[in-house]
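<instruction>
Derive structure tokens from the sequence
<data>
Labelled lines for chain and fold:
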Amino acid sequence: MATYGYIFITTQNERDIDEQRVQMLALDCDKIIEEPSSQEKLRPEWRRMLSNLKKHDTIVVYKLSHALRGIRELGAFLDLVSRYQIRLISIMDRIDTDNEVYDDTTVADVLKVIGSLSSEVATLRKQEIKALKKVKTVKNPRLLKTELKIDREKTVVNMYNSGHSIDDIWEVSGYKSRTSVFRVLNRYGVQLNRGRHQGPIKKKGE
């Protein structure tokens, strides 16, 4: 069982990163993953971490709004947590699904965190967009978008080759439909080998 720490580096918290690392090490994190805010939309490091999860692993985040982009992602993430029996710890939200670190947190406290998730994410996104506009030397947006797209597609292929189900891959990838997952597998020449999906992916109409 592994314990993963995830830090989303924003312009607002970059001075506090060392403190975040200390808190995560105190919670016995085996590996701490850091994601720059320039990759806020696709979050490849977060998705890569989810693709490596095994049953009974632990995820430690500094704040839920730093890891998830809204209620839709929260629902998919909690489903993944439930099926893999993952322990979730959110430091600033004072949430521990094993009820050990923050045993005084109530259901009402958790509901308050969930209720404020969308507004916190929106505020964070606006702050990062504003900060990026002030940076004079920003990487070519088209190049960055292409790199993130390739990274997401590689995550899909690697997860399938590692034995993950289509549903798990879909949830981690962030695509709006399973069709997009199949489209990526087809593009990379992956032959389906389990469940209802066997053999090469057929073109529509075949």
